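TASK: fixed-backbone design
INPUT:
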């Protein structure tokens, strides 16, 4: 495996993504605990990430000496390059303003790092971070790639197998970066691609069996990809010791509940309790217009309904479940250095099935803890979950309630469901679904005048939204062409009673959020 030591770069996770794409397992450890990580993982190679600090600052982060002492190959990126330089006896000069930008590196000498990718004497685009820079390399190092503003762009010690770059190979703006990382992993460290989803599946099945023994596991299914993949995997491991509970809040999209329940019961034969709590949820949301209160109400009711159901299951004579299954992913467990941990403003109180364990005092089974989202999708495919389900856009825990500004009623839900289904169908027909991170409709509490046939209408406005994003943290609106929007709007107005006007949301995030509430 590969150990990635995190010095706080915003893009450390991308290094892990690229390494795993080469079929090799890796973990990210913060530099403060890198000694433990090195000890535990016993990696065959190490990568130092970039970071925001300056090595010239007293007390700035350093890599563990044990890593150098072990003799394993190291790839050191940006801040990593600088800390390696000072730790091995070179020097670094500060005082340059940190700045990201495109640069061209000229290759001066061949190296296994770019074998088969870059040729000597040519120039290649990379994404550089200008800030502090190395001014004298440690003994044994040699510059093999250079650029105008970064004389030490690529500086290596082939004998010790230490490779350092001032640019970031992990970002997409370094087009050949993924292949350079693959060369490091395969040619230099010598690891073969054995991190596959079928291997992971077999390994996790064994781990789940060992962890759970003969006890029972409860899983709250949300209808999303993560909890579904976790449930199918756990069922493969322990069969009917698993009980899934689907709390139906009545806020799902058209046909969605039927799809989830059908898939679990009929396709996978997994015991599933479908709790129809829609009257309870919709009843309490009817007179409530405040977005935060809506979110909190949904979160509270969900826990109440789930707990009541858990008590019922415990009374079926087969003993109380002692484990709760969770679809926690790797990005949620990485202790990122860049995470400030300081007080931050709550923009929205998130509801998903993840808030349960604190209350329920159960042990956790988290078979996806080591995976990134796209790896979860790959595992889902491996487990035979249909592509149409796996490739779906994210859907928020509070469901359609936060896509209906104002109080929630069955009538409004009905209009929104029909309109949204048409919108999504048109997106699929146009072949755009997979280019979009998330697309959905919002039914506005606004009525406007229209004319249909010879008559006057006074109906609601529907807003369409579609965004591109990498992680949901930032987003751009999707640039549909107007013909597409016109077609979708015409169909919605003609086919959905209650909507007579359609608008498109062109707000990015920030300053907007993706959802409207
Ligand atoms: P915002 O609206 O905050 O959304 O820009 C970012 C992403 O998170 C999703 N979202 C949620 N997901 N529970 C969830 O599981 C929630 O309460 C929730 N609120 C927003 C949203 O759909 C988008 O993908």
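OUTPUT:
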């Amino acid at each position: 495996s590969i150990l990635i030591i995190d010095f706080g770069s915003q893009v450390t996770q991308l290094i892990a993504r690229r390494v795993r794409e080469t079929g090799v397992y890796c973990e990210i450890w913060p530099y403060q605990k890198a000694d433990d990580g090195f000890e535990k993982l016993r990696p065959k190679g190490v990568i130092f990430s970039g970071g925001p600090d300056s090595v010239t600052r007293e007390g700035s982060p350093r890599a563990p000496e044990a890593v150098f002492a072990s003799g394993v190959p190291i790839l050191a990126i940006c801040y990593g390059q600088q800390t390696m330089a000072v730790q091995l006896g070179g020097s670094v000069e500060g005082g340059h303003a940190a700045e990201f930008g495109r640069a061209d590196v000229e290759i001066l000498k061949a190296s296994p790092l770019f074998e088969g990718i870059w040729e000597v004497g040519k120039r290649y685009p990379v994404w550089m971070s200008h800030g502090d820079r190395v001014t004298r390399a440690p003994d044994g190092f040699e510059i093999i790639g250079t650029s105008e503003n970064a004389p030490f762009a690529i500086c290596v010690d082939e004998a010790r197998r230490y490779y350092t770059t001032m640019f970031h190979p992990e970002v997409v703006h370094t087009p050949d970066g993924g292949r350079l990382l693959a060369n490091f992993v395969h040619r230099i460290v010598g690891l073969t691609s054995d991190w596959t989803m079928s291997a992971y599946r077999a390994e996790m099945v064994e781990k789940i069996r060992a962890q759970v023994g003969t006890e029972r596991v409860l899983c709250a299914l949300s209808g999303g990809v993560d909890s579904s993949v976790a449930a199918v995997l756990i069922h493969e491991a322990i069969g009917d010791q698993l009980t899934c509970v689907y709390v139906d809040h009545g806020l799902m999209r058209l046909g969605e509940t039927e799809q989830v329940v059908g898939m679990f019961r009929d396709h996978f034969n997994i015991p599933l309790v479908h709790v129809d709590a829609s009257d309870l949820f919709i009843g309490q949301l009817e007179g409530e217009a405040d977005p935060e209160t809506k979110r909190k109400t949904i979160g509270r009711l969900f826990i109440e309904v789930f707990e009541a159901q858990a008590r019922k299951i415990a009374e079926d004579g087969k003993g109380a479940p002692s484990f709760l299954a969770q679809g926690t992913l790797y990005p949620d467990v990485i202790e990122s250095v860049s995470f400030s941990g300081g007080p931050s403003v709550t923009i929205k109180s998130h509801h998903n099935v993840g808030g349960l364990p604190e209350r329920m005092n159960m042990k956790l089974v988290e078979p996806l803890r080591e995976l990134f989202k796209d790896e979860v999708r790959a595992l889902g495919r491996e487990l035979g979950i249909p592509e149409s389900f796996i490739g779906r856009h994210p859907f928020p825990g509070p469901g359609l309630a936060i896509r209906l500004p104002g109080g929630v009623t069955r009538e409004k839900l009905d209009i929104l469901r029909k309109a949204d289904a048409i919108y999504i169908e048109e997106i699929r027909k146009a072949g755009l679904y997979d280019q979009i991170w998330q697309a959905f409709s919002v039914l506005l509490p606004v009525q406007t005048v229209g004319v249909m046939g010879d008559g006057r209408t006074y109906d609601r406005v529907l807003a369409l939204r579609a965004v591109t994003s990498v992680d949901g943290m930032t987003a751009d609106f999707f640039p549909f062409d107007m013909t597409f929007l016109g077609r979708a709007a015409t169909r919605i107005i003609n086919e959905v009673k209650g909507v007579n006007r359609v608008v498109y949301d062109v707000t990015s995030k920030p300053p907007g959020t993706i959802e409207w509430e």
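COMMENT: The domain at 2-188 is CATH 3.40.50.880 (Rossmann fold).
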